Amino acid sequence: MSSLADSTRWLDATDQAALVRSGEVTPLELLDAAIERIEAIDPALNAVIIRWFDEARATAAGELPDGPFRGVPTLLKDLWAHYAGQPLTNGNQALKDAMPVSETDTTLVARYRAAGFVIAGRTNSPEFGSLPCTEPTAWGATRNPWNTGHSPGGSSGGAAAAVASGMVPIAHASDGGGSIRIPASACGLVGLKPTQGRITLGPYRDESNLGVELCVSRSLRDTAALLDAVRGPGVGDTVIAAAPSRPYVDELGADPGRLRIGLLDHHPFGGPVHPECALAARNAAALLERLGHHVEPGFPDAMANSEFGRRFGALWSTNMGVGLARIAAQLGRDLGPGDVEPVNQAQADFARGVNGVDYAMALAANVDFRRAVQQWWADGWDLLLTPTLGEPPVEIGTFANDPANPMAPMVRAAQYVPFTPAFNASGQPAISLPLHVTPDGLPVGVQLVAAYGREDVLFRVAAQLEVAQPWADRHPKI
Predict the structure, then answer these.
(1) DSSP letter at 250?
(2) Which tens digits make up the pLDDT trace of 215-230?
(3) Known catalytic residue: 179?
(4) With b meaning 16 or more CB within 10 Å and e meaning fewer, what string describes 188-198?
(5) Per annotation, catalytic residue among 130, 165, 179, 426
(6) What is the pTM of this model?
(7) Chain-centre distance of CA 208, in angstroms?
């Protein structure tokens, strides 16, 4: 590996942008260093599945917007994030075969470009982002750089593997049930799920969707600066979070005061939680106490209602049905056998049996759940602390498709992710921080959840933790 590729490998995006601003490196040199790392590292991981390096070089050599990340190389997730002139497959074999080229950028991708990023390709995603692993039939499994026998999580697993291994400092990611926070936990990264309505999903997706988009990164300052650069509504948005009173980067280092924090270190409705994950949350609670906060057992009662999973599943499967209908329209034909993985076809088939009243009732139940969960914060709590996942990173193949039992991967997924989906349904911001490592060297994240619209509180407290227990120098050996 060249000296520049090596010396910039573990710099975060803020430091890489500073090199460009100072004239120490050019955007093209920075991009070539990232490409060198991708070509050297990715054969072992399979994280970067679509590449447009020549176009990226032309972009880097041209006039870039003078944004906060001018000249910094990055990657887009292969899920819904359209980039004009390049293909998008959503992890699906039929789309991979057709390789349809996007005609326009999504609004968020346009904002990434306006921030000065040089986008060089796409990272792997499970088909339609439906599972907490990254093993699509279309592109094959992405592997965790901390242990290649294990999954990097999903659905933003390719993004997390690319950032954790040092290919790029930051990468686009999205989260419909934990898909930013899950791989952040599994790969030792920072993963913020923003408030619903904080960042537009336009022009193709609706802000009432369970999903949100932002990034996975190695530092809080990168995540905060990117949120500052891309936040805000788009044309036609109807769910719009109130603008912050000041930039999020200004929250880093700000005094959060003494906060009342609830600790949930067990499964909210009785399932198993791995001891290392519970230990990660309890250790974080002790650290927060030492930092001056008050931590006690507590969490929203609504999370203990096992009916939530059924409600969430009804909405999730209906979104899957809508997604497959859009893909069929894009391809100009009906989807047939082999076009869709069994787990996703089963969900779409289930959605066909959901009538308008059923769906309206599911939406109403979700509203009830959202209000009940958010009431806990209104009643005087500031943050909720949980493990991010119910288990450390699982082995490759844990969520394998089973045509004889197509919903088996989703059932297994529910065991793995008991703590993340609730806050897609409630719309609240939540962040995973890399505060724990198992004895065999696998990362374990902890999750902090704030009231709706209060990313500022998350950044203040997370910054305290980043200083008290730094993670910047912790890297996989791959």
Answers:
(1) G
(2) 999 999 999 999 999 9
(3) yes
(4) bbbbbbbbbbb
(5) 179
(6) 0.97
(7) 18
